[in-house]
Amino acid sequence: MGIKSRGLKAARNAAVSGAAVLGLVLGATGTAQAAVDDSNRIVSNGLEVVVSQEDTFIHGVPALGGSPFNREWFHNGRGKAVLSGEDAADATSTFQFGYQFAWAGSVDGKIGVTYSTPQLELETGAEGTATVGLDPLDAPAEAEVTVGSTATVTDILPQAYAEIELTPAPGIEELVVTEGEFDGDYKEVQFANVHGTGSGIIGSVQVRPFVRVITANGDNVTTYGKPWTV
Q1: How far apart are CA 31 and CA 37, in angstroms?
Q2: For residue 134, what pLDDT is reported?
Q3: Beta carbons within 8 Å of 5's beta carbon, 6+ residues apart
Q4: Range(s) of the domain holding residue 98
Q5: Which stretch is the leader sequence (predicted)?
Q6: Are 79 and 189 in contact (CB under 8 A)?
């Protein structure tokens, strides 16, 4: 089943963020009585790939500022990927986390997701500018630089921001918030108070979280959670 290497491979990927916005806990340690909310599977090149979401909770709150056109919420939960089969321990895959959003109408509307992670990759340019590669599941970086509206990186907890613009008419859009490669047969990512905001929105917003794994040969499997109305 490929589980024999879980402890060793997962230990290589282990990382903990004490962020108030997004906590990433990568490794083989799980919650004993976690509730599996949704899951999906494929067989790719002889390997079974199972993705799931657990303990999902999206909590809508009154938006700061009190505008009737603004929305705000927080997301807690956990995403997992398990690979089984011969050579699963040597596999390299990509893990994605994101949302589908649905709205009834908007006036110059936007939806954004803010999260913190100590694992942004930075390439610093001239005169204090920087090019940011959002790969929070891989190698850490420490710096202090502000990069437009894309990311603000501090020496403790870098913050990143992903955003979509809304059409005036009703629509559905998918936003990949973060992705990164992982080695081995197991990956777990814990979401702690991922912060979502919306502006210029007429009516409510439906938020559907998802987790996706893309294998080395390009096959992918996605599990979508239930829609939460904010």
Answers
A1: 14
A2: 40
A3: 88, 89, 184, 185
A4: 3-229
A5: 1-34
A6: yes
For the chain, what is the domain count?
A: 1
pLDDT at 16: 28
User: Which of 160, 75, 78 lies closest to 117, judged by CA?
Assistant: 160
CATH number at residue 125: 2.60.40.1650
Query: Which residue in this structure is represented by tokens 């936003």?
Result: 175
What distance in Å separates the CA atoms of residue 201 and residue 105, rounded to the nearest whole number? 6
Mean pLDDT by 10 residues, the chain (230 residues): 38 31 39 80 96 97 95 97 96 96 97 74 40 42 39 54 95 94 95 94 97 97 98
Q: SS3 breakdown of the chain: % helix, strand, coil, rounded to 5?
A: 5, 60, 35
- Residue type for position 161: Y
What pLDDT is recorded for position 75?
A: 97
Residues 214, 96 contacting (CB under 8 angstroms): yes
